[in-house]
Known about the structure:
This is Purine nucleoside phosphorylase. By secondary structure, this protein is α/β, with parallel strands linked by helices. The protein has helices at about 5-15, 90-105, 165-175, 195-205, 215-225, 250-270; strands at about 25-30, 40-45, 65-70, 75-80, 110-115, 125-135, 180-185, 210, 230-235. Helix 2 (about 90-105) packs across helix 5.
Amino acid sequence: MRLSEQQLQDSTEYLKSKGFENPEIGIVLGTGLGQLVDAIEDPITAHYSQIPFFPLATVEFHSGKLIYGTIEGKKVVVMEGRFHLYEGYDFVDVTYPIRIMHRLGISKLFVSNAAGAVNLDFKKGDIMLIEDHINLQGGSPLAFSNVAEFGDRFVDLSEPYDPGMRNKLITIAEREKISLKKGVYAAVIGPQLETKAEYRMLKTIGSDAVGMSTVPEVIVANHLRLPIVAVSVLTDECDPDHLEPVDIQEIIRIANETEPKMIKLFTELIKEL
């Protein structure tokens, strides 16, 4: 893996030429969580296929476009469709859009994902504020030869998720009467779902939810000294003693039903920043 300064410049200049000027907040939308784009005023869209050196989303329910506009008076750039290791991409590909959004000017990053509830006190349809994570993806988006050209090689992750934005979201959730769980997110490669034994292992090592994304983006955001807040929409319950076959369409349905609460949290946080 290697990252090219020229590629980053070409991608950024293309988006600036389309009107992506000085966004304040970047937002990454997870599986089944695309309704937030309806809140964007005066949107400008760039499909991933049009952006130089951008990967292409291959998952059928990830639409694959970058959208620039305004939410609650703030300029935002939104990734509708993210990239995953299970699509065959490497860590540099998966996190490339984070570096581009940073170069466009964002100073805050919001991330959402759909995840399975490992903590059996959590139920499908809950939202979990990610307080910490466990990287089980077998690699790092900073493990490439010329990483020092783009920031520190050895990045501190003692507090990967911004405490200030986390506290604001907790306050907003209380005010809006939205139940907001808090916990640890474990990232695996996928795309297969976990076995009963793997769910037991995930619980034993301290995870509350499991998914196939987010952690690479968070690591790169910390590499860029970019404050980040992340939430998981919990779409299934991972009880190894009562495990049922997973229905992906059911996961998408739960994500769609829960998303309005997530949108409320994000839009209120944008308003307060």
